[in-house]
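User: I'm putting together notes for a lab meeting next week and I want to include a structural view of one of the chains we've been expressing. I don't have a solved structure, so I'd like a prediction I can at least talk through. The sequence is below, exactly as it appears in our construct file.
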Amino acid sequence: MQSQSMPSATTSPSPPGGWRGFVRDWASDREAFPVPWGKAMMWIFLLSDTFVFGCFLTGYMTVRVSTTVPWPNPSEVFALHIGGVDVPLILIAIMTFVLISSSGTMAMAVTMAMRRDARRAGALMIATAALGATFVGMQAFEWSKLISEGVRPWGNPMGAEQFGSTFFMITGFHGLHVSAGVVYLLVVATRLLRGRYERSGNYQIVEIAGLYWHFVDLVWVFIFAFFYLW
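Assistant: Thanks for the context. Below is the predicted structure for the 230-residue chain, given as structure tokens.
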């Protein structure tokens, strides 16, 4: 008699297809795509935030082109009186330089994290947070200057009333993002320096924080172009 071949005990069953396969891939915290869940969720959040900022900026452009009252001249509104001379947009230029520089330190922090150098990554994240806090401080000074000149969300002595409402809403919403990012970076940096991620060997949280921070910087580029250069 010929012996019948028995299936090997180590042979793994083929994965289910159809709806069962779909549920299996997305259940029990599995990765359906070659992207970690933390990074995927951050991308989804940033995509939704892009729509929000896009709606704000679109509304700003619509209001500006449709108003019949003259729009304030940004070079005059955002000028600083230095040495007896009005220097246009000097504060805005410094703010932009500070925020763009923070993207550089954040990129270096991600590089150090990928090299498992927690000390340098944490220090660079603290430097990034310090630059972000400096930006928020200068933005607060800009707000106080405009408020002292009579600009309000419901009124503006320099021209169109919509200027105040759109300016405070959009720059305030962006400033809130920067402030939240500063806290976020400081929390991650503190955990880095305490060795929390060294035990697990997973420094991916630094890259996720970097995605958020680069997004905040990118949004400011559009705000800078629409509010201060247009």
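A couple of points you could mention at the meeting. Helices lie at 18-26, 37-66, 74-77, 90-114, 118-148, 162-193, 196-200, 204-229. The domain at 34-229 is CATH 1.20.120.80 (Four Helix Bundle (Hemerythrin (Met), subunit A)).

User: Perfect, that's what I needed.
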